[in-house]
């Protein structure tokens, strides 16, 4: 059996689609999977069980990347095509069965993706972290350090970034004397182009910081974040990686849409700005370079969410106690194509 799975070129959306892919892999354990996605999230799929071919799709002028994909797939008769891009390729290749993504703005993206195969509840995102990524995490994390605090202070748009001084203040509270993660190191993660915007946080943390900015591909980042006691970050692909890895995750939202893109998992929470989103979006529309769109989130509110995820304080080592997601509880799928 041959399955073609076409997913997003965006990191976060690709992560959120992994639950549907895991469902297919488990339902058809002997199938040969071909996965097409953007180059950035591609490493996350390299160890999917049953993978026969991984096709990264760098964008090309005049949509020629879709022509390239069609050429790579047209010679195969597919038993099943799952096209989350709702593309012409999914319609133009030979296939016995085809399923396409359809927008459902009132649902979380994981629920929307689950509806492609009629899965309710939808399958939760899943990561397949391989030995190469684990070895890279061993190299990057000093001395096999005990579970640490991980933070993601950047995003693909600066309007979604909580102020750097607040990230530093939060880290000081959580890892300082009397904090829930007292004495722990702080790993700072950011994509390569965003390293400069993470620098103020690294400078404020000093020797406590583990600099992982621009140093890892998504798979290695997942291996690192999975070892953290807690992840706190902006609305980004890295936030979704942390939640999918099972790390207690706090996602921060100002002008974004947590009802659609909040972190999904049994140990995730969102903290939303006190400023109404309509006001933030109006400010952004008036000035695309507007600053301060995340100022409505206080350090105290994020610390409270972190405390709730970490569970009741107790003497001795801190052991994260996952809690169910407030808005999007996840369960394993029971049925589907």
UniProtKB/TrEMBL annotation:
The EC number(s) attached to this protein equal: 2.4.-.-
Protein's GO biological process: lipopolysaccharide core region biosynthetic process
Q: Which InterPro entries match?
A: Glyco_trans_9, LPS_LOS_Heptosyltrfase
Q: GO cellular component terms?
A: cytosol
Name the keywords, alphabetized.
Glycosyltransferase, Plasmid, Transferase
Tell me the enzyme class.
transferase
Task: Report the GO molecular function annotations.
Answer: ADP-heptose-lipopolysaccharide heptosyltransferase activity
Q: Where is this region: Disordered?
A: 311-337
From the Swiss-Prot or TrEMBL record, give the protein name: Glycosyltransferase family 9 protein
Q: Where does this protein come from, organism-wise?
A: Azospirillum brasilense
């Amino acid at each position: 059996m041959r399955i073609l799975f076409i997913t997003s070129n965006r990191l976060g959306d690709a992560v959120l689609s992994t639950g549907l892919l895991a469902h297919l892999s488990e339902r058809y354990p002997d199938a040969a999977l071909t996965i097409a996605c953007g180059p950035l999230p591609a490493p996350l799929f390299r160890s999917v069980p049953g993978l026969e071919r991984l096709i990264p799709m760098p964008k090309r002028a005049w949509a020629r990347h879709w022509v390239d994909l069609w050429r790579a797939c047209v010679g195969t008769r597919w038993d099943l095509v799952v096209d989350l891009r709702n593309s012409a390729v999914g319609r133009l290749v030979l296939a016995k069965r085809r399923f396409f993504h359809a927008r459902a703005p009132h649902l979380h993206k994981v629920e929307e993706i689950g509806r492609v195969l009629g899965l309710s509840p939808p399958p939760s995102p899943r990561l397949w972290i391989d030995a190469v990524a684990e070895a890279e995490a061993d190299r990057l994390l000093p001395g096999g350090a005990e579970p640490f605090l991980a933070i993601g202070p950047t995003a693909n748009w600066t309007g979604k970034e909580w102020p750097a001084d607040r990230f530093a203040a939060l880290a000081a509270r959580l890892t300082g004397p009397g904090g829930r993660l007292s004495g722990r190191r702080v790993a700072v993660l950011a994509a390569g182009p965003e390293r400069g915007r993470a620098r103020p946080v690294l400078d404020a943390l000093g020797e406590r910081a583990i600099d992982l900015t621009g140093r890892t591909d998504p798979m290695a980042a997942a291996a690192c974040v999975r070892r953290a006691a807690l992840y706190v970050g902006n609305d980004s692909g890295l936030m979704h990686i942390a939640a999918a890895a099972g790390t207690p995750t706090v996602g921060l939202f100002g002008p974004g849409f947590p009802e659609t893109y909040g972190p999904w998992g049994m140990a995730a929470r969102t903290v939303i700005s006190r400023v109404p989103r309509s006001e933030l979006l109006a400010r952004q529309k008036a000035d695309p370079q507007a600053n301060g769109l995340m100022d409505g989130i206080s350090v105290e509110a994020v610390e409270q969410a972190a405390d709730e995820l970490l569970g009741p304080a107790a003497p001795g080592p801190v052991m994260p106690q996952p809690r169910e997601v407030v808005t999007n509880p996840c369960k394993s799928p029971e049925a589907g194509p």
